[in-house]
Amino acid sequence: MSILLASTLPLAAAVPAHPRLFMPADAVGPLKSRLGSDPVAKLLHEKAMGRADRTLTEEPVRYEIPDGLRLLGASRNAIAHTLHTAYAWRMTGDRRYFDRCVKELDAVCAFQDWNPKHFLDVGEMATAVAIGYDWLYPDLTPEQRKRYEEALSAKGIAALPEKPPGWWNRATNNWAQVCNGGLMLAADAIQDVKPEQAGPILTHTRDVIKACESFYKPDGAYPEGPAYWHYGSSYHILAMAVEERDAPLKLEPLWQQTSRFLIHSTGSSGMPFNYADAGPGQAEVSPAQTWLATRTGDALAIKSVRDLIQRRYSDKKPPSDRFLPLTLLWLPPAKEAAAPETKAIYRGEQSLAFLRSDWSPGALWLGIKGGTPAASHGHMDSGSFVLDWAGSRWFHDLGSDDYNMPGYFGSQRFTYFRLQNLSHNTLVIGGGLQNPKAASCPVNPFQERDGATTFTIDLSPAYTDQCKEALRKIAFNGGKHEIDFTDALKDPTGPVRWQAVTDAKVTLDGRTATLEKEGHQLVLTTPNEGVAWKLADAKPPTEKEKPNTGFRILSVETPKATEVSLKVHISAK
User: What are the pLDDT digits (tens) for 62-104?
Assistant: First the structure.
């Protein structure tokens, strides 16, 4: 590896003794005491111990690249195996957990490499080995220590190519957070035995992680969506926790704002707005949430994450948190908080608005975005929305497709149905696609009028060759459980279609569409003359794409005209 750095951060005069990553020796006693008084901490501990017990019966991960590209599954399982068994060892002293963790570390450190051609795999595997090595360090033999140190050095840090790609040097996307965060942990773990190698890495990774704060600007939204928020932010926070150990951190207001972004972007169904490359599902839990809630002291974030933990871990399908011991270690003490605002706008690269009738589980909730397909993991979804009512999601974002399809992250990206506006809850003009390189479509400020919150999204950049202007106006009346869409276009090149993806039972009657789910209804009407609602299968055009089973596209279309005003009224019953 040959990396030129402008400066190096001097190592601490006295490098803290192992274990020093997140769970020093003096953290164990207070955590054990807390388990008797904090029911949420006790719940997480029990889940962590259960996962550690299951790991005792499982084999260590193997070097397997099932898709020909990624070792990532093995890296992530190694984190889960290592952190849970090391945590159980630290909390109980039961040698079975120590031996199982060593077995995992020995297996992955014997791999031929950690698959540097897909460097996320290296970043995550380095994380597993760094934490396992650090947490077990006092009881490891000299031979074991040396084995893990050499693996972190050779298969982790030294695996960087001679000319590292952009994510290594710049704030590009979640890769910058994950890869730099993982290598920071590797360097921190071995800085006392390999200071010449570790020092420059610590300097460089801290600089890049700091630059990644730009992802959350100006007000906390994450451009790659809530799902990737957990991925990128978890590694970002791991890095910040290392920095915090060595020197106090001053947290910018941005970090409180991004915690609240997660709150607003999760609907009353418990599902986030899964824009960008994310699948649908219940809100996740991660150590980034608990660390931020603890460090900011934000009562709203504290109450939200504790409530979320209780809800999700009582589910039949609990969250997938390979970092669960860290989620527990950073869990904030309980704090009461007033309900947040029922609406919020975020003005980042992917501009967004969230509105709800109230904070009950059955509330009417709308998440809608402007933004651009050109963002990392972006879809042609400018103007798209998702909608929750009575505890269910009624209008859906279908989510990502198979990352391994040809050109998914390249020239063929927008040939795939799930990434086109043809599959999103937005406008289609003359059957055409949105501009893949569109400038970000802004969400304009809220206004209050006649009991409703109104705002406009300027979609003109997304349809540059298809109309002179496209404005999507929303009026959200939470008290009446009503939403009005007014799409105003000038000189569209073809018919204008309003559409939304649903899995509800649908009955059509001319200009009225009635959706039903579990005894509740959404009634959609349009005042436009000469139009009628239609229902089409959401099946993609090719067999290699996900089939979208159970979903249909509800639409209404108005003819081409010099000026078009297509209106849709939604009433929740």
Answer: 999 999 999 999 999 999 999 999 999 999 999 999 999 999 9
| CA–CA separation, 121 and 75 (whole Å) | 6
Q: Are 259 and 221 in contact (CB under 8 A)?
A: no
490: left (phi over 0), alpha (psi -120 to 50) or beta: beta
The full DSSP string for 530-561 is T---EEEE---SSTTS---TT-EEEEEEE---
Within 10 Å of residue 425's Cβ, how many Cβ atoms? 23
Kindly report whether the global pTM for this prediction surpasses the value 0.90: yes
Whether the Cβ atoms of residue 25 and residue 135 lie closer than 8 Å to each other: no
Contact 125, 185 (CB under 8 A): no
Mean pLDDT (the chain) is 96
> What does the block give as tokens for 109?
């450190």
* CA distances in angstroms from 303 to 156, 157, 259, 300, 524, listed in the order given: 38, 39, 11, 5, 36
Say whether the peptide bond before residue 319 is cis (omega within 30 degrees of 0). no
Q: How confident is the model at residue 13 (pLDDT cuts 50, 70, 90)?
A: low
Strand pairing category for 352-356 and 343-346 = antiparallel
In whole angstroms, give the CA distance from residue 263 to residue 226: 10
Instruction: Give burial (CB, 10 Å; 0-12/13-18/19+) of 254.
Output: middle
Structure tokens at 559: 């003819």
Token pair 């007033």 is found at: 338
Q: Are residues 399 and 418 in contact, defined by beta-carbon separation less than 8 angstroms?
A: yes
Q: How far apart are CA 31 and CA 529, in angstroms?
A: 66
HSE value, Cβ hemisphere, 13 Å, CA-based, for 282: 16
pLDDT given at position 3: 38
pLDDT reading at 9 higher than 60 = no
How many of the other CB atoms lie within 10 Å of CB of 573? 12
Percent of the chain with pLDDT over 70: 98
The model's pLDDT over 136-153, given as tens digits with 9 standing for 90+, comes to 999 999 999 999 999 999
Secondary structure (3-state) at 395: strand
Starting at the edge strand found earlier in the chain, the sheet holding 563-572 runs: 447-449, 452-458, 469-477, 482-490, 563-572, 520-525, 512-517, 505-509
pLDDT at 73: 97
CA dihedral 506, 508, 513, 519 (to 10 degrees): -40
Query: Does pLDDT of 491 surpass 60?
Result: yes
